[in-house]
Design brief:
The protein is 40% helix and 12% strand. The chain is α/β, with parallel strands linked by helices. It has a 6-stranded parallel β-sheet with strand order 3-2-1-4-5-6, with helices on both faces. Helix 4 links the parallel strand 4 and strand 5.
Length: 209
């Protein structure tokens, strides 16, 4: 069982698992992530990113992109400290919020101007669909591991190009209303009932072998 077709292809190519034995069960956002409800207020408009602080999440590129945006836009970072080299977060316009509950994260998504996910590699990218489920416009990395979570509604940007990422954020702000509507439609494709049915079919197939 894998959480994306991208991961499934990786399993087939890297581990040699026969393709017919791979079952793709894309995760869905939890019930806490919905468009109705309270929205966070950080005292100024903000860009939100959700990631453990580690190199794969590529937050330093986002920090550099944020410097290219107007001074009124904050960068809010949710996530615990991880491994490896840490991003430089000593800017007064950056709010490091650490780990938060799902309910608080949903409030932050609803209050954000844009959610940005600049990761260099993922299995699926659940924060992308969480943000869309809360009615937030999304900018995500153009790495193909994020194709399924992002779909058409996310603005895609080169994760190694700060200027391109900043331009993507500006585009998402300009097209926010359209992206929010498209994102809410996109996340309807993901459900935990569908995940359960895929697992059940997989177990049934295994039992028949």
């Amino acid at each position: 069982f894998v959480n994306s077709a991208y991961t499934g292809r990786d399993v087939v190519e890297t581990l040699g698992v026969p393709e017919e034995r791979v079952h793709v069960a894309r995760p869905a956002p939890k019930d806490a992530f919905r468009p109705d409800g309270a929205a966070a207020d950080l005292g100024a408009p903000y860009v939100l990113t959700v990631a453990t602080l580690e190199p794969r999440k590529n937050l330093q590129t986002l920090v550099e992109a944020h410097r290219l945006l107007g001074p009124e836009l904050l960068l809010a970072i949710v996530g615990a400290e991880g491994w490896g080299e840490q991003p430089l977060l000593d800017d007064a316009r950056i709010r490091r919020l650490g780990f938060v509950s799902d309910e608080e994260l949903a409030r932050l998504y609803r209050g954000a101007t844009v959610a940005v996910y600049p990761s260099r590699f993922e299995g699926f990218g659940i924060p992308v669909v969480e943000a869309m489920a809360c009615g937030c416009a999304v900018v995500s990395s153009s790495h193909p591991s994020l194709d399924e979570a992002s779909g058409e509604p996310a603005v895609r940007a080169d994760p190694d190009d700060p200027a391109g990422l900043a331009a993507g954020i500006e585009q998402a702000i300009a097209e926010r209303e359209r992206l929010v509507a498209a994102g809410l439609e996109h996340v309807r494709k993901f459900s935990w009932q569908a995940v359960g049915e895929i697992f059940l079919r997989g177990y049934e197939e295994a039992a028949r072998r």
